[in-house]
Each structure stands twice: as structure tokens, then as C-alpha cells.
Amino acid sequence: MELQQENITLVKKVCEIYEKLSKFETLKHCNEIDNLYNELVDTCLLHSSINIAALPENIQELRSKLIRLCGEVETQLEVHFSMILGSLKNPLHHLNIFPNHSNHLKLTRVEYNLLNQHYSTTTQAPKQLAFVGSGPLPLTSILLASYHLKETTFHNYDIDLSANSMASPLVASDDDLSKRMFFHTTDIVDVTDELKDYDVIFLVALVGMDVDEKVKVIQRLAKFMAPGAIVMLRSAHGTRAFLYPVVDPYVLQGLDILTIFHPDDHGRSIEGAGRGVRPPELFAQ
């Protein structure tokens, strides 16, 4: 009964924060929105036995709306700091001004380690990597390219021209990344033959905001990517499902699950999937 009451309290708190966020005419970065969003994240990081899938329909509808709101809050946060960084002489020297910089450092280290376990039995790094949903501040791409995959070429895909217009100048002044990082403005479901060029494809959590959209993107990747290439999918687990879409293993048709990793801090869940040469494997943490 105590656990049930804790879950009721948690859902009530999430609903209250949603109601406050939904009243804003715009979700552009400001202290009030930032504080509400941080409160929501802290609430959703509490350990809970809640079964998100079993919540009633009205809460599921609210959750779907909240995920979209959270996506917009995160986008506007990136826009705000991308503009600040873009005004500086050497933007990449000042990435630590971004509030979630330390979390991105941890996340990219985890993702690199997971990728390194499964990419190849050789010491050769991926030659080309696609990052789908890179946004106005492509921190993960920049950090992976700067610290972990120093010989890899990165192709960042975003459907929003303004996002790429802000992101591209951030690496333009860097002698190394300006030669290894490219930006493409297109819907990834319209990309076909080019997908075969990539050894690794990253798909961020907010590409495909509901199950149908997510499945469409994943099936598109599975159809056109090279045999044996790896897809890194960001998902959500437990109460984080109020913040990000959930990628259930059953939607990964055409892909063999290599790893499922659930972080126990502010990170998102990560799923790595490959197609073709690898036997199905499942590791849970």
C-alpha cells in the first residue's frame, strides 16, 4: 500500500508540473521554465516500482504531451547556449558553460564503451558515423569526435535547418572537427542509399516522439543500413518514460539486440543494435 501511495504521489507531482509547463506561451529558456524542468527531472529520477505501461489512458495521453514539451524545453535550452557559444571566438573551448555538459561527458563515455565492446574484433575505429537528431548544439557528436573517435568522420542529420545553421559554425573554427564533421538538413526517413556508408548510426531519444514514428525510423534504418553496422538507440526506462519515448525491444525488427544499458543517474537508457553478422545477444544492467 505504501508503494502504491508513493506512485500516486509521483504521478500527481508529474501532472502538476505538466500543467504549469503547458501554460507557457513559449518554452524559450528562462529561469522559471528551467526550474520547473529540473524539478520534473529530479522527480522522475526517484526510485519507483511504477509500471508506466499500466497507467490509465488519461495519464498516458498526458505523458505523450509531456514528452513533447520536454523535447521543446531541451531544444530551446540548446538554442540558447548554442547562440552564446556561437558568439565566442573559440566555441569549443567553452562547452562547459552548457548546464548539462558533465552529464553529456558521462553519457558519451558510456556510449563509446558500449560501442567499443561490439563494433569490431579489430582495433579499427568506425570510419563514418551518422548522428540522427543532432540539434542546434550537437554536444554528443562533438565530444565523441574530440575525445573518443578521433579518426571518424561524423555526419549530423537534423530536419531543422535553423538547428544546423547554429550547429555548423560551432565547429567551423576548429582545424580538426571542421574537416570531420558535416551537417545535413533532411528527414532521416528520406535517406536511403547513403545509410550504407555508415558503420555506426546514433538515433537520439527525441527522434520519433511516439511509437509509430519511432518504429518508422527504426525500420527505415534497418532496411537501408549496411549489414553488420550498429545502431545506437537512446530510450527511456522506468519513470524516465515521462521524459523520453520508450524503445521496446519488440519494435527492433531486422536488428539483433546487442546491449541494453540502464544508467542509474541522469543518463538516458541506451540500446545498441546491429544487423547481419552478429548473433543476437542481450546484456542488461
Automatic annotation (TrEMBL):
Query: What is this enzyme's EC?
Result: 2.5.1.43
An example GO biological process term is:
nicotianamine biosynthetic process
List the catalytic activities from the record.
Answer: 3 S-adenosyl-L-methionine = nicotianamine + 3 S-methyl-5'-thioadenosine + 3 H(+)
Task: Give one Pfam family, short name only.
Answer: NAS
According to the UniProt entry, the coiled-coil residues are none
Q: Which InterPro entries match?
A: Nicotian_synth, SAM-dependent_MTases_sf
Q: Name one GO molecular function term.
A: methyltransferase activity
Q: Which SUPFAM superfamilies match?
A: S-adenosyl-L-methionine-dependent methyltransferases (SSF53335)
Specify whether S-adenosyl-L-methionine is a keyword of the entry.
yes
Q: Does the keyword Cell wall biogenesis/degradation apply?
A: no
Enumerate the UniProt keywords alphabetically: Methyltransferase, S-adenosyl-L-methionine, Transferase
- Reading the lineage from the top rank, the first entry is Eukaryota
Task: State its role.
Answer: Synthesizes nicotianamine, a polyamine which serves as a sensor for the physiological iron status within the plant, and/or might be involved in the transport of iron.
Family under the similarity heading:
Belongs to the nicotianamine synthase (NAS)-like family.
Protein name per its UniProtKB record? Nicotianamine synthase
Organism encoding this protein = Helianthus annuus
